[in-house]
């Protein structure tokens, strides 16, 4: 029969890598249409997709989100935050046909995720929220974790074959918005742990402990976390992490401040106490507002605390 078309909107740090994997693994079975408000990332995608002799004859660029929706059977979005998702889907719904599946992989608030899913539902189309954990490395490697909120098991199963091309763990969390809920909880934990690791290493250093020795000890003791053993905020304890590259690349401190804000807002709405989440949110907001740190990875909280200053 006619080839199905996959659409991808938002080719930033994450979307670019995810769409690259999806395109490469479906190039013989599907058509692919991409859109981003930044023309440069579209050109870069077309240039990269055609490397290694891969044919790009099934790949096209759409001028608007609506144009993507009019062509696609499945629409993926990977956008910065709730307002962008709202704006893009206001256009997408104008072009949606019945039964088209929309998969939003952005990290946004639960309320927006549910509202946008309702707009899509009114068109007779379907929507799942499928935010990711893993960062740009996992996006490139195709090993992301997806947390999926969907109205039905059928919608999850429709998304699954494509999510499997971009990730290795896929969790169905419940109804629309619950994928976002899981993501927000994970990132609140991550945000708290990174602050904890940063102040811990700074204290250890000021007490005369070499960071590399303290790290060995923590990682074989009960203080271990992903922020100590995989993504350590102290420069040069882990190779290739942002902390070892002047805090460049990775997960922007502004995005972490946004995610902590989502957690605190959700906590407020449900009368849930999150004293450490709230404190960490404020810390990332201050770091994001600090001259020279705003474009850095969130682990730069270690530098902000004075971790590189001479004792
Ligand atoms: P990014 O800012 O690099 O990419 C966003 C892309 O969306 C950009 O290319 C931008 O041009 C495009 N865009 C924005 N508004 C648009 C619009 N109205 N129409 C068309 N295109 C538009 O962000 P990212 O780092 O790729 O993150 C995307 C999402 O994934 C965020 O919600 C983030 O919280 C989440 N996330 C990021 C990471 C990470 O490590 N970077 C990890 C997990 C989850």
UniProtKB/TrEMBL annotation:
One of its GO terms (cellular component) is mitochondrion. It catalyses: 3-hydroxy-2-methylpropanoate + NAD(+) = 2-methyl-3-oxopropanoate + NADH + H(+). GO terms for biological process: L-valine catabolic process. Keywords: Branched-chain amino acid catabolism, NAD, Oxidoreductase. It holds the Pfam family NAD_binding_2. GO terms for molecular function: 3-hydroxyisobutyrate dehydrogenase activity; NAD binding; NADP binding. It comes from the Eukaryota. InterPro entries: 3-OH-isobutyrate_DH-rel_CS, 6-PGluconate_DH-like_C_sf, 6PGD_dom2, 6PGDH_NADP-bd, HIBADH, HIBADH-like_NADP-bd, HIBADH-related, NAD(P)-bd_dom_sf. Residues 6-174 form the 6-phosphogluconate dehydrogenase NADP-binding domain. The keyword Oxidoreductase applies. Residues 177-304 form the 3-hydroxyisobutyrate dehydrogenase-like NAD-binding domain. The active site is at 183. Its EC number is 1.1.1.31. Pathway: Amino-acid degradation; L-valine degradation. PANTHER family: 3-HYDROXYISOBUTYRATE DEHYDROGENASE, MITOCHONDRIAL, 3-HYDROXYISOBUTYRATE DEHYDROGENASE-RELATED. Belongs to the HIBADH-related family. 3-hydroxyisobutyrate dehydrogenase subfamily. This is 3-hydroxyisobutyrate dehydrogenase.
């Amino acid at each position: 029969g006619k080839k199905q078309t996959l659409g991808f909107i938002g080719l930033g740090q994450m979307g670019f890598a995810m769409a690259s994997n999806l395109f490469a693994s479906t190039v013989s079975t599907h058509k692919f249409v991409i859109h981003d408000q930044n023309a440069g990332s579209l050109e870069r995608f077309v240039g990269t997709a055609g490397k290694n002799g891969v044919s790009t004859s099934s790949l096209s660029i759409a001028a608007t989100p609506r144009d993507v929706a009019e062509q696609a059977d499945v629409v993926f979005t990977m956008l910065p935050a709730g307002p962008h998702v709202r704006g893009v889907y206001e256009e997408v719904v104008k072009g949606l046909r019945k039964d088209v599946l929309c998969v939003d992989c952005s990290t946004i608030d639960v309320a927006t995720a549910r509202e946008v899913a309702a707009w899509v539902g009114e068109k007779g189309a379907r929507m799942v929220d499928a935010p990711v954990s893993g960062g740009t490395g996992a996006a490139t490697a195709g090993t992301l974790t997806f947390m999926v909120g969907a109205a039905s098991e059928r919608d999850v199963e429709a998304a699954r074959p494509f999510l499997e091309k971009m990730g290795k763990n896929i969790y169905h969390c419940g109804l629309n918005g619950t994928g976002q809920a899981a993501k927000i909880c994970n990132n609140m934990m991550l945000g708290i742990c990174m602050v904890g690791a940063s102040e811990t290493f700074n204290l250890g250093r000021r007490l005369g402990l070499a960071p590399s020795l303290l790290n060995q000890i923590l990682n074989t003791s009960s203080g271990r976390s992903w922020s100590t053993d995989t993504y350590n905020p102290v420069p040069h304890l882990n190779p290739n992490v942002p902390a070892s590259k002047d805090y460049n690349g990775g997960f922007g401190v502004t995005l972490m401040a946004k995610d902590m804000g989502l957690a605190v807002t959700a906590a407020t709405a449900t009368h849930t106490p999150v004293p450490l989440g709230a404190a960490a949110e404020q810390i990332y907001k201050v770091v994001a507002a600090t001259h020279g740190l705003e474009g850095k990875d969130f682990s730069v909280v270690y530098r902000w605390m004075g971790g590189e200053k001479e004792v």
